[in-house]
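Journal club prep, notes for RB
We'll compare a predicted complex against what the paper describes. Inputs for the guanosine-5'-monophosphate case:
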Amino acid sequence: MTQKSIFQRIIDREIPAQIVYEDDRCLAFRDVNPQAPTHILLIPKKPITSIATLEDADAALVGHLWLVIRDLAQQLGVVDGGYRVVVNCGRDAGQTVDHLHFHLLAGRTLDWPPG
Ligand code: 5GP
């Protein structure tokens, strides 16, 4: 049997997380190892491994995730200062959890290009 990802275990409340938003399609919580004063992870509840395995039928879900990011940024008060949304896909990008996730980073100046 395939092991549950750490994020699936957070969805299933098997391990704790500081949840900042939830609806029927997604969950947002604070990253356990924050890389900025505000570092939120937004994940779909549907077990999608990465951008690479998105299906055409996920288009509405992906649109919803972006709108949740827009609203979360507003709610967290980071719109004026600015924020960055990062999705790592695959080994070279540094993806370590095989469940699609959007990083919302804010609260400091973020370097470009990223490392
Ligand atoms: P990736 O490197 O795959 O793009 O990002 C995975 C993120 O998940 C990392 O920023 C890491 O700190 C975070 N993370 C890993 N395990 C946990 C956990 O158990 N709880 C929380 N809240 N974040 C986690």
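Talking point for the session: DSSP finds two helices and five strands in the chain.
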